[in-house]
Amino acid sequence: MAGVGTAVGGLFDRSADRYDRINTAITFGQDRRWRRWAARSAVRWPGPRVLDACSGTGLVGLEAARLGARVTLADVSPGMLARARERATARRLDVSTCLVDLADPQAAAGLLDFDAITLAFGLRYFDDPAAVMRRLAAALRPDGELVLLEAVLPDGGLVARGASFYFFHVAPRLAVLLGGRRELYDRLTASVRSLGTAADVADVLAAAGFDVVRRRRFVGGLVIGVVARRTRGTVAG
Ligand SMILES: C[S@@+](CC[C@H](N)C(=O)[O-])C[C@H]1O[C@@H](n2cnc3c(N)ncnc32)[C@H](O)[C@@H]1O
Q: Could you identify the atom of ligand 1 that is nearest to the CA of residue 12?
């Protein structure tokens, strides 16, 4: 039977060709800024080993590679990874790719000893986010850092309320008008609702053995950036 990861992977496979273009259109190009922040946060000294988990087409991982990191792109969707490889070749960037279902503890067990892990807009696709975060913590070297970017339910404020209305009601329709698959954007908004607020994400990180060292809020807190350090002795769950 196909697992959760493979079902989501199939959905992204069918969207790989348009995914980046639609993202940039519905965020008015802001998504590039968020992803650049994530890549820069992961590359703080020359040549770190970086795992871009749920890499998709490699928007964060390829930027980290451009900044000098040795990058592995990991995703459950062969179509998204194929797109990432095409982009790497076009930019003459040398990266590794790994087709993996991060919801599967056995499949993820071979990922080890990274200096940093980036996870951009991937956490919300997991039924058990804390288990995945524990798995990712175990893939980091001790004191290694996780850089998380995620859309969350904002906790108030005028900008956040406006951004939230746009995100939940306008952006999905716009994405479909631009040729996106309705099921993907329905899933996107549902998954943000089920992941919850920035405080819920902080609880997930704490439960997985991460200490938050830095936070960023984008668009009034609808998108959050978090840098968190693996505490010593974290064990995969
Ligand atoms: C919204 S996209 C984000 C992609 C990329 N990080 C970015 O910033 O554009 C989510 C990605 O998570 C991947 N994904 C979802 N479930 C996964 C799983 N169980 N294991 C690995 N990757 C998964 C999808 O295939 C998709 O490429």
A: 25
* 237, part of any domain: no
| Mean pLDDT score, 168-197 | 92
Residue type for position 9: G
- Do 132 and 76 touch, CB atoms closer than 8 A? no
Q: Is 236 within the bounds of a domain? A: no
Number of Cβ within 10 Å of residue 132's Cβ equals 25
Q: What is the pLDDT of residue 107?
A: 85
H helices of 43-104, in order, are: 59-66, 78-90
Which residue has its alpha carbon closest to ligand 1 atom 16? 5
CA distances from 61 to 77, 105, 129, 148 (A): 15, 22, 21, 13
* 213 domain residue, yes or no: yes
pLDDT of 184 higher than 70 = yes
Within-domain flag for 235: no
CATH number (domain holding residue 88): 3.40.50.150
Cα 116 to ligand 1 centroid, rounded to whole Å: 17
And the tokens for 4? Answer: 């959760």
Span 116-134, average pLDDT: 95
* Highest mean predicted confidence (pLDDT) among 34-43, 98-107, 179-188: 34-43
**pTM greater than 0.90 (yes/no):** yes
Task: Please give the number of the atom of ligand 1 that sits closest to the Cα of 80.
Answer: 27
